[in-house]
Design brief:
- This protein is an alpha+beta fold.
- It has a domain of 81 residues: Roll (SH3 type barrels).
- It has three helices and seven strands.
- The longest helix is centred in the N-terminal third of the chain and has 18 residues.
Length: 172
């Protein structure tokens, strides 16, 4: 074992002696010649623009995460609110965007709309029925569209009414 160790030590010292030669003429020549024939110019470094200091003063404004009601919003409350105790109809479980109007019917001067739900069921609805998940109530039906009045909650815990429509889908 010591013979192997001495042999390895001898080989290692031989390699170190071979690497310690200070003759690097080929490297010096390469460095001298590497810049020959190069033409061009390096663009100057652009001027550094100083930025204006900004003092953060957001502690003076109310937090956006805390619900707030100003006096104007309280005085203009509409009193509009959906009937949360009413039994929901079948088509209120689907978003309005997933429902499709596929036709209309008329019987005794009353017009009905044919609505296809995402599960493939065809439903006949009339004025007063509810559609969609925003408490939408059918206000009008024509041959080509269903007009809904939806009650949606606005940003200050108040309810607002908006008009939406469901148009006849072309089957072509």
């Amino acid at each position: 074992m010591t013979k192997v160790f001495h042999l390895l030590l001898f080989i290692l010292s031989l390699m170190l002696v071979a690497c310690s030669e200070e003759n690097h003429n080929d490297l010096d020549e390469f460095i001298r010649d590497s810049g020959k024939g190069l033409r061009g110019q390096v663009d100057p470094v652009p001027d550094v623009k100083l930025h204006k200091h900004f003092i953060y003063e957001a502690f003076d404004i109310p937090s956006p995460f805390i619900p707030r009601q100003n006096e104007q919003a309280q005085s203009t409350r509409s009193g509009l609110q959906p009937d949360l105790k009413r039994r929901k109809e079948v088509l209120e479980q689907y978003p309005l965007e997933s429902l499709r109007m596929v036709g209309s019917l008329e019987k005794n001067k009353e017009i009905f709309a044919l609505i296809n739900s995402p599960d493939g069921t065809l439903h006949r609805v009339s004025i007063g029925n509810h559609l969609g998940q925003n408490f939408g109530r059918i206000a009008g039906i024509s041959e080509s569209e269903v007009i809904l009045k939806e009650i949606v909650e606005d940003g200050v815990n108040d309810w607002a009414e908006r008009v939406s429509s469901l148009r006849l889908e072309n089957q072509g």
